[in-house]
Every structure is written in C-alpha cells, then in structure tokens.
Design a protein that fits this description.
By secondary structure, the chain is mainly alpha-helical. The protein has 9 helices and 4 strands; from the N terminus they run βαβαββααααααα. Strand 1, helix 1 and strand 2 form a beta-alpha-beta unit.
Amino acid sequence: MHLDLIVGLPGEGLESFGKGLDTLASWTHSEIQIGILKKLAGTTLDRHDVEYGMVYSDKPPYDILKNKNLSFVDIQNMKRFARFWNLFYNSGNFQKSIDSLWPKGDVFDQFFAFSMWIYGQTQSTWKISLERLAELLFNYRVNEQGADDKEVAAILLEDLLKLEGRKIPPFLKPYAYENGTKDSVKKVAAQGHNKRQQRHQD
C-alpha cells in the first residue's frame, strides 16, 4: 500500500497531524507519503482562505506558506521532516533501525526531533549518501538517545545488508568484524519490480 498525509490542511496543526501519523504508523509498515498542501487550479480550497488564514506561494506548485494553525517556520520544518521521512522511513533501507527511534509509539515527536537534529548537522535535505544517512542515525541513537552502540550497529547492519550490492560502511566495520560479519554483503536480492516496496515487506 501507499498512504498519504498532507501538512497544512485547514484547521489542522502539528499536534493533530502528529496524532494522525502515530495512528497510521501503528497500523502499517507500508509507505506513508507526507506531502505539503498545494492550492491547485480547479479546487475549492479558497473557501477556507479567510477563516483559516491560508497563505499560499504565488509560484508553482503553490505550496501552503502558513495558516492560522501553522507558522511559516512550522511549514519549513515539516518540509524537511517530509524529506527525511522519505529517506529514512519510506526508502525501506532502515526498516528496523528507524522503528527503534520510537519504542513508545510516539512516532511524530521522535522523528520531528530527529529531523531537526539532522538538519542541524547537515544544513541540507539533498544529496546525502546512504552511508551518511546510516551514520547520522547511528550517532543520533547513541549520542542523543543514549542507546547501546553495539545494539544500534547490529540492527543497522541487518538493515543495510539485506540487498545484494551493499557494502559495510567504514564506521560499522569494527562492529561487523566483532560479530564475525564478513566484509561483503548478504546475497539476498529483492524480488519483484519495486525494490523499495520489497524492503518494506521483509
């Protein structure tokens, strides 16, 4: 399945959006696409403009800029949230590792904090390699959440070596050698046409 949540809907703030994400994530491990509200031609969204203080960009794709419940800063933070969510959760590359961020089920709060930390480290949402993403997740879990480094490394290695063609990132090699993992990938190829969806099913 492919599910969608939209940031910026009239009358919805971060708290209610977060509750929706927490609920949806508790129901499924399928892709959950997070999008930003756009005022498309032919829709009737303008009927909410005055009541909810809806302000949109005047340039395509006409993204929401702010409204009564979300400030401009809130929207910018959620754009980064959505991008990092796609890289870490929807990619399927960190299926078990990313779940360890929210053992109590508070998905939105934990991932929001993580996304803010990532942006503070990278000052970017683009051109971040898989190895760099893994290292960021490792450092956050160990240094910010106080998780055991060996446990975090073991789960990351399991995630990263699911697909053929993967190599052990240098920062994980000491943990891999300690556990007897060879410096080569596990020969498990994804089946079907969509490897990304396959990773979510494993």
